[in-house]
Amino acid sequence: MGILLTFIGSLLLGSSYVAIKLGVSNVDPLLFATLVVGVGAVFMLAYTLFKGTFRLSIFGRWEAWAAMAVTFVLVACQYVGLSMTNASTGALIIGTNVLLVAPLSALLFKERLGRLRILGLAFGMVGLFVLTTRLDLGSISSGQLVGDALVFAATICIALTYMLSGYALRHMSYDQFVLSIFLFTALPLLLLYLLFGGSADADLSLVPLILYVGVLCTAVPTILWVWGLRYIGMVTSSTIILSEATFAVILAVLILDEPVNLFVILGAGLTFFAIFMVIRGAPPAHEAAPR
């Protein structure tokens, strides 16, 4: 169940690269981020109220405020970074969060890696590299370095969010943790936009895109990801999320008419093979979830 939920979440996350790229190409990235996270916050508030799990007491936990702070930095860096670099490079860089999650989860939560999982991680990173660069390092120009650095900062924040989830889920439910991630994050994003953002021009035709990214690329996949963590370990989860880059490239081909070639097929194959190896090397279910 956890693997399936995480995989569905990765599919939705994969669509976010094309969607965000379209958004930040037409709206100031900080304003777009504010609107998207605001939509996600409203969705999560309605979700927890409907389920009856909304509790103000969760904001008495340090994990809730830490998650908000990390998410603020994550979203700001990701959206501004994707406005300066291309979606494929962003997918590659964000996919490397598994290399941070694996040692951190082993250090903080004693999650076993094992040879098969380490080998799977290696195959996954090679697959992502092939998939997103087509073995052409010249595809990453010097003009993209600032954007790439910002996306890498977002990658570090993703790894930190994994660690925070390990502590938070001991004291709150998965949906309460996701609510803490989003509820107040739009406010500092709005302040950042007012201080440093550009034009406030936004076409009403972008409303469906904002709703799509806010709900189906932000809130829902985060719910599925955190829910899945109850059943699988952090390393397995972060490796499955690697597949989002594969979906991002596939959607770029379908929507942006990017060509399909041998590198796309090879990279996608290596990525899914890596997922299979990591799942096969996963510890028993009672050892998988962080404690």
What descriptors fit this protein?
291 residues, mainly alpha, 75% helix
Describe the fold and architecture.
- Helices cover 75% and strands 0% of the residues.
- The chain has one domain (2-288).
- The radius of gyration is 18 Å and the shape is globular.
- α1 (2-24) runs antiparallel to α4 (87-95) and α1 packs across α12.
- It is mainly α and 291 residues long.
Provide the number of structural domains.
1
Secondary-structure-based class equals: mainly alpha
Strand content: under 5%
Radius of gyration equals: 18 Å
Most strands sheet: none
The averaged pLDDT comes out at: 82
DSSP helical segment count: 14
How much helix, percentage-wise, in residues?
over 70%
Report low-confidence residues grouped into runs of 5 or more. 285-291
Q: Output the helix-strand order.
A: HHHHHHHHHHHHHH
Topology:
Blueprint: H1 2-24, H2 29-51, H3 62-82, H4 87-95, H5 97-109, H6 114-133, H7 145-168, H8 174-182, H9 186-196, H10 207-228, H11 234-240, H12 243-256, H13 262-280, H14 285-288
Helix pairs in contact: 1-4, 1-10, 1-12, 2-3, 2-8, 2-9, 2-10, 3-7, 3-8, 4-6, 4-7, 4-12, 5-7, 5-11, 6-13, 8-10, 11-13, 12-13
